[in-house]
Amino acid sequence: MICVNNLAFSYSKIPFIENTSFEVKSGEIFGFLGPSGAGKSTLQKILTGLLPGFSGAVSVNDTKIGRHTGTFYEQIGVAFEFPSLYEKLTATENLRFFASLYPTHRDIPSLLGMVGLERDANKKVSDFSKGMKTRINFIKALLHSPRVLFLDEPTSGLDPSNARVVKNIVLEEKAKGTTIILTTHNMYDATELCDRVAFIVDGKIKALDTPHNLIMTRGASNVRYTFVENGTEEYREIPMDRTSTDETLADLVRHDRLMSIHSGEPTLNDVFVEITGRHLV
Ligand SMILES: Nc1ncnc2c1ncn2[C@@H]1O[C@H](COP(=O)(O)OP(=O)(O)OP(=O)(O)O)[C@@H](O)[C@H]1O
Ligand SMILES: [Mg+2]
User: Fold this and answer.
1) Distance 62 CA to ligand 1 centre (A)
2) Structurally, what CATH architecture does the domain formed by 2-216 represent?
3) What 3-state class would DSSP assign to 70?
4) How far is the centre of ligand 2, averaged over its atoms, from the C-alpha of 40 (Å)?
5) Is 38 close to ligand 1, i.e. is its CB under 6 Å away?
6) pLDDT at 132 (0 to 100)
7) Which of 164, 166, 140 is nearest to 154 (CA)?
8) Segments of the chain scoring below 50 in pLDDT
9) CB-based contact 187:274 (threshold 8 Å)
């Protein structure tokens, strides 16, 4: 669905994105995961035809970016990281305006209802909270049932229950067959939602795989156990594959002295740090 071949781009004389190639399959949720300033939004802007001046070949839904026309925007939906809405118009007026740009569109009251904004339909966007703006910005991208959805930090600034609502809608869109590009620095969102994730740092893709493969093949699972020694609580952490040979653990088990034992798989953040040497936040 998306093909990027040998992409290069810079904002200044210093090269930023270089030698970047990847593909996104139809119906996949593909994540750009990286810290602030990594180049996630830049990549999204290139893929959506908003940032000219790149070299290499980029195509989205069989459209070559650079030669795209207005009809390209009928097939893609974009939620920018900063809500792009008319502040003086109400929620419904905003959605009606953007809907008028497309040949057909989804029912506006039901879209508002999906993100819990039905009671705010006639309120001016200037009176919306940050999270309300994020939610209306999100449903704006779904208005015309696009084949490809670009979501830049769709849960940013949302409370946990609204973030859950948005993530469920993202999964519903995937179930319908929509291809989704999701930009995030949230490892939990990336782990839960994405079929594959690209780790991005300084404009470069440092790793690309399924969250499961990244976690299981790159990081070691650990076991942490606690026990009392000379009246004080002690703990030990060992790699999962050393539990059978760890003498302290064997002794504690033999004498029923184990207080607690937990296993912990590395998180996507641990793997991100291991591969890139950088933290996500
Ligand atoms: N219009 C611009 N002109 C010059 N430099 C820019 C421009 N937009 C972004 N940059 C620079 O490009 C780099 C990547 O920015 P980008 O917005 O793509 O990062 P990001 O990964 O989306 O970060 P965040 O998580 O904070 O949204 C940053 O160093 C930024 O300063
Ligand atoms: Mg960004």
Assistant:
1) 27
2) 3-Layer(aba) Sandwich (3.40)
3) coil
4) 5
5) yes
6) 95
7) 166
8) none
9) no
